[in-house]
Design a protein that fits this description.
alpha/beta; 10 helices; 36% helix; TIM Barrel
């Protein structure tokens, strides 16, 4: 079972910073998950929210700021004084770190925005530049962006995130396995509340992998291991790795 660090080791360092990713790989995480956004001048940077307010000392939306402006903000002090003056991470710096650190899986989440397809093309171009096609997984709540990604570069894996359709799944109005099969998605990435053994079995029968998020409860690991879950996305990679080692 793969252990993927959600926004890096975000309980030990500010989320989506190079420090958080370094710590995650140092804890022997199999890979990391991150969120990519586009600046006003077309650069790719890492941030979960569209605004920088929650994770820096600045305000405003990333797509309304130039990269040079973003470098003026502190993306670390909100987490702790030890991380004062941490810069926003660029996608280039991130991929270089992943290449050096030997990550097995790099989960790159693409957000819905006006530049969705353009962002996909830029991300794929960068992945190819660093020869990380085999490690990359492009994920999104937007199935159309994933389908577009497959058309641009079929060899890069895609992962469908939900519960954007979580309620529909629960009410059996929407079948994630059939949706993944229809759109050639390689992974299903359900919230932990929308996964069961039947889903895993049906997905595996169609050669689709299942990796729930955000799994922070170690009591789930025994069950997931028995079901054959392919990986977990977690805020605590070190704890999950230790749990798996003693199973």
């Amino acid at each position: 079972m793969l252990v993927i660090a959600h926004r890096g080791a975000n309980k030990y360092a500010p989320q989506n910073t190079l420090e958080a990713f370094d710590i995650a790989l140092g804890q022997n995480a199999d890979g990391v998950e991150t969120d990519v956004r586009t600046t006003k001048d077309g650069h790719l940077v890492l941030c979960h929210n569209s605004s920088i307010k929650a994770t820096s000392d600045g305000r405003g939306k990333i797509n309304e700021k130039y990269l040079g402006e973003l470098f003026n903000y502190d993306f670390g002090s909100w987490f702790g004084s030890k991380f004062k003056n941490t810069s926003i991470a660029t996608f280039d710096d991130f991929l270089q770190r992943m290449k050096q650190g030997g990550a097995k899986l790099i989960d790159i989440e693409i957000k819905r925005d006006k530049l969705g397809k353009e962002t996909v093309e830029r991300i794929i171009s960068k992945i190819k530049e660093y020869n990380l096609e085999a490690e990359a997984l492009i994920s999104s709540f937007d199935g159309n962006l994933l389908s577009f990604s497959k058309r641009v570069c079929p060899e890069i894996r895609t992962g469908f995130l939900y519960p954007f359709f979580g309620t529909a799944v629960k009410n059996k109005l929407f079948d994630p396995v059939q949706n993944a099969l229809k759109n050639s998605f390689d992974f299903l990435l359900p919230h932990r509340s929308f996964i069961n053994e039947d889903l895993v079995k049906r997905a595996h029968a169609k050669d689709i992998k299942v990796m729930p998020w955000t799994v922070n409860d170690i009591s789930l690991i025994n069950k997931y291991s028995q079901w054959g879950v392919d990986g977990v996305i977690t805020d605590y990679p070190d704890i999950m790795i230790h749990k798996l080692e003693i199973l």
